[in-house]
Amino acid sequence: MVTEHDLVTMSQILLAAETNVEAIPRLTERYAFDIEQAYRVQAFLIDEKIKKGMRLAGYKMGLTSPQKMKQMQVSSPVFGVLTAETLLEDGASLKKKKLIHPRVELEVAFVLGDSITPEDDLTPEALAKKIAYTTVALEIIDSRYQDFRFTLPDVIADNTSAAYYVLGSHFARLDDMKASLLHFGAQLWINGTLQAVGTPANVLGHPLTALASLVRQLHQYRGETLKPGQIVLTGGITEAFAVEAGDVIEGVIDHLGSVRIKVSE
Ligand code: OOG
Ligand code: MG
User: Fold this and answer.
1) What is the pTM of this model?
2) Which segments cross the bilayer (predicted)?
């Protein structure tokens, strides 16, 4: 059994891996810990970042599509924390050497207009009313584990591989749209080549279902609720792709616009 002290040590090992840009062996090879304890490690890690001056911007859901679950061999949706400091501007350049083995994902992002608690009606219809804006996002993930391989507790402890994220510059209102998000097409382009296609429906049947899952898990593992203005990434629509210096990556979702990032050395 792991002690409280072990959980803090694990968060420090993960933070050092991130700072030193150096992959580490999976923590589950050294410590036996469960999902609840993994979320405690994640919380210690985030507390440390907040102490250093970073600010909470929202949350990310991960492993919410069959495409991602299959690629990572982990089949439970998980959540992580987004900081304001890791939000890149649309069109920005990402320095590859700051990361271990970055991959890019195409996602739907929500900006909340209202708070959301587990007592609220969490059906997609009710949740849609609590969304201020919806846009397309790219997430840059970077597992701190060797070979980008992990078990469920490992990836939760590692803040679900969060590194950077970019939001599109077009903010759509779901209720202004005639068509349903579920019928929109999504495309990921790398260097002008269509790398993958999908639809927001890949994400647990509806990205708003991923939001509902976040509300429940956040309450269960953190005792927290969502607040207006927070950003929520709902999880990769397709599998993730390795990024290389020189790449120009563009995500497009019908009616939500596009988002772009350049990768430098
Ligand atoms: C875990 C994070 C997954 C997503 O969108 O599915 C994730 C990983 O695959 O490294 O962010
Ligand atoms: Mg993601």
Assistant:
1) 0.97
2) none
